[in-house]
């Protein structure tokens, strides 16, 4: 049940009108047993439940359908693979054309990716070597979810293509998520930590340990929020 609660949550597939309470209710009533079941709910039975009028049911149906178009990184994060957070999910999504490509990845190949260490690589391999997980993903694709990385092709020629970014401190003009999305829209890659693989550290107010660490790596360019906006052509 916890996997389903995570799957529908705001930072994952963001299925509004679902939420933890409804996951638990549908599960306990036998209306929902697994993640693919989210997309095969019997709405006629839900309509008979107290608190589910036409508007509520329409909102739930629309939210479930809309989630099928979520980008690949959200689906990866929603799967609840141990040690894979939102930033790592983006790194993983950008490294493949199709989610099931990970079934063929070796540990060595995974370790070449930014933000992926031995612990994360083993967790990813364990997930994709599990036949039940592969079957679940195939079911989700059949039900209309996006397992292709559609974004990979659209950002390949962006002005920041191939350049990696990390944001630290409080930005004054942009929200962190907004800045990350702007970088990604131009082909940039968002990392989760400072390393020699990082090209740009964008520094806001009250920057902490990440700034100090970046100063020790000569190849990392430390820039301000305004300089980042200039890179975008703003």
**How many distinct helices?**
13
Straight-line N-to-C gap: 45 Å
Question: In order across it, which strands form the biggest sheet?
Answer: 2-1-3-4
- The CATH first-level class of the largest domain comes to Mainly Alpha
Write the CATH architecture name of the largest domain: Orthogonal Bundle
Strand segment count: 4
Rounded average pLDDT: 93
Instruction: Identify the overall geometry.
Output: globular
Corresponding CATH superfamily of the largest domain: 5' to 3' exonuclease, C-terminal subdomain
Helix-strand pattern:
HHHHHHHHHHEHEEHEH
Poorly predicted parts = none
What class would the helix/strand composition place it in? alpha/beta
Count of domain modules = 3
Task: Please give a structural write-up.
This protein is an alpha/beta fold and 234 residues long. It has three domains: 2-67, Orthogonal Bundle (DNA polymerase, domain 1); 72-151, DNA polymerase, domain 1; 156-231, 3-Layer(aba) Sandwich (Rossmann fold), CATH 3.40.50. 47% of the residues lie in helices and 6% in strands. It contains 13 helices and four strands. Strands 2-1-3-4 form a four-stranded parallel β-sheet, with helices on both faces. The longest helix has 14 residues, at 54-67.
Short summary of the structure?
With 234 residues, the chain is of the alpha/beta class. It contains 13 helices and four strands. α11 links the parallel β1 and β2.
């Amino acid at each position: 049940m916890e996997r389903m609660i995570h799957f529908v949550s705001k930072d994952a597939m963001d299925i509004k009108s679902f939420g933890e309470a409804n996951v638990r209710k549908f599960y306990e009533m036998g209306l929902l047993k697994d993640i693919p079941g989210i997309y095969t709910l019997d709405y006629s039975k839900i309509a008979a439940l107290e608190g589910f009028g036409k508007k509520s049911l329409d909102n739930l149906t629309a939210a479930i359908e809309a989630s099928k178009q979520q980008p690949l990184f959200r689906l990866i994060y929603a799967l609840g693979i141990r040690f894979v957070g939102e930033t790592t999910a983006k790194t993983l999504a950008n490294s493949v054309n199709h989610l099931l490509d990970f079934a063929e990845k070796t540990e060595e190949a995974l370790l070449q990716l930014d933000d992926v260490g031995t612990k994360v690589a083993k967790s990813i391999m364990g997930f994709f070597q599990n036949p039940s997980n592969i079957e679940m993903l195939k079911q989700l694709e059949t039900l209309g979810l996006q397992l292709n990385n559609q974004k990979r092709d659209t950002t390949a020629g962006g002005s920041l293509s191939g350049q990696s970014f990390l944001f630290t401190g409080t930005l004054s003009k942009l929200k962190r998520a907004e800045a990350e999305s702007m970088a990604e829209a131009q082909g940039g890659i968002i990392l989760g930590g400072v390393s020699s693989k990082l090209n740009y550290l964008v520094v806001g107010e009250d920057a902490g340990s990440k700034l100090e660490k970046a100063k020790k790596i000569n190849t990392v360019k430390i820039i301000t929020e305004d300089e980042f906006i200039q890179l975008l052509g703003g």
